Prior knowledge:
Elements: E1 3-8, E2 13-20, E3 23-30, H1 35-50, E4 59-63, H2 69-86, E5 90-93, H3 95-106, H4 108-113, E6 119-127, E7 130-138, E8 144-146, E9 151-154, H5 155-165, E10 169-172, E11 187-190, H6 195-207, H7 225-239
Parallel strand pairs: 1-4, 4-5, 6-10, 10-11
Antiparallel strand pairs: 1-2, 2-3, 6-7, 7-8, 7-9
Helix pairs in contact: 1-2, 3-6
Amino acid sequence: MTIILAIETSTDACSVALSSGPDTFYRFAQEPRSHTQLVMPMVNEVLSDAKIGASAIDVIGVSIGPGSFTGLRIGFAVTQGLAFGLNLPVIGVSSLEIMVATYLRQHPSLAQQMEHGDKIVSVLDARMGEYNCGCYWIDSNGQIFSEHTDILLSRSDALAWIQTLQPTAVIGETKKLFTETSIWKNSIAEIHPEAIDLLEITNSRHADGQALSIKDIELVYLRGTDAWQKRTRLRDKKNG
């Protein structure tokens, strides 16, 4: 029996899940700027629910971005502490891929209608008119595969990219991406990636021998250095 801990903190929502045999324990909260206060208590709560200690964990799955800079750092720091302290292997997964798994779980009827090769585009608002975008396709067994490397696009480029790909659905932080005048007419779902869906991905990749040492895993930030410097300058101007 493999005991898996999953941590997802890439958006305003954060979640922690634990699988122990047939049992799954889960915590989810959508409280912006509260990840620091929430994540470790959530870990302790799911361990308590399962009536096990942290030393019983076999592998940790963690979202590695793209997404909220602060949120990702918090989740990764908790993962680092546990992985280093308990010598645990880690599976790092794109938050955009996790979101596809969340969508498929939340919309089972749509998932059943999807055919081999159907695409889903997942997006996260990167602010300043830019979007973290990923495109994934589903095989006949419901497995998720990356169609493209996750990329950062302006709103106009993201809309053009989606129009070219013609996915079955566009999911994630879509409110600002699509407007009443948008030409996109297929399914749109406003959702967050959730740790409960990271469990299955982690289990599959761990079984395939894809787990790594935490020192070999890095967070993924699609935003360039210039954009971060611009954001810092704007903040400094406001504070000045």
